[in-house]
């Protein structure tokens, strides 16, 4: 995986989300935020996560979707249960994954962060394939953005503790951070 000029990594799946805007300071990409998502909740597979980040979720496909189909959010990357990586937003642009958030006294983490969503929940461990691809992807991101050091890799729950619990109790922080070398 290499970076091209537009901030899209090579050799992964690309789907362009309309849910992004410009970073206030494109030179400041200095935080990595790990999340989980599954749609419907606790169900894996299918295209509903893609549809959600693309603003195309069908509100009639599941009762829960009526509540969320108009929510405009995105992420830079999504890693499904099989380890397939999809990128929805250029790294040069601001994806909308963190919401109201604060890291070390600084608000609006979307401004200066990259978001990675893992297909998962707080009820099941993540897969080996997901960790393997997450490690590769993180190493590549850290090479491209040296301001992102291991102490600037956080969970959504770290930057929005009153609202969010992801990536949850099953995420293996120690192994993940060690795997980055
Ligand atoms: Zn999250």
From TrEMBL:
SMART domains: Ami_2. It is an enzyme of class 3 (hydrolase). Its main location: cytoplasm. It comes from the Bacteria. GO terms for molecular function: metal ion binding; N-acetylmuramoyl-L-alanine amidase activity. Its EC number is 3.5.1.28. Residues 17-168 form the N-acetylmuramoyl-L-alanine amidase domain. It is found in: Cytoplasm. Its cofactor is Zn(2+). One of its GO terms (cellular component) is cytoplasm. The keyword Lipid biosynthesis does not apply. Pfam families: Amidase_2 (PF01510). The keyword Nucleotidyltransferase does not apply. GO terms for biological process: cell wall organization; peptidoglycan catabolic process; peptidoglycan turnover. It catalyses: Hydrolyzes the link between N-acetylmuramoyl residues and L-amino acid residues in certain cell-wall glycopeptides. Belongs to the N-acetylmuramoyl-L-alanine amidase 2 family. InterPro entries: Amidase/PGRP_sf, Amidase_domain, NAMLAA_amidase_2. Keywords: Cell wall biogenesis/degradation, Cytoplasm, Hydrolase, Metal-binding, Zinc. This is 1,6-anhydro-N-acetylmuramyl-L-alanine amidase AmpD.
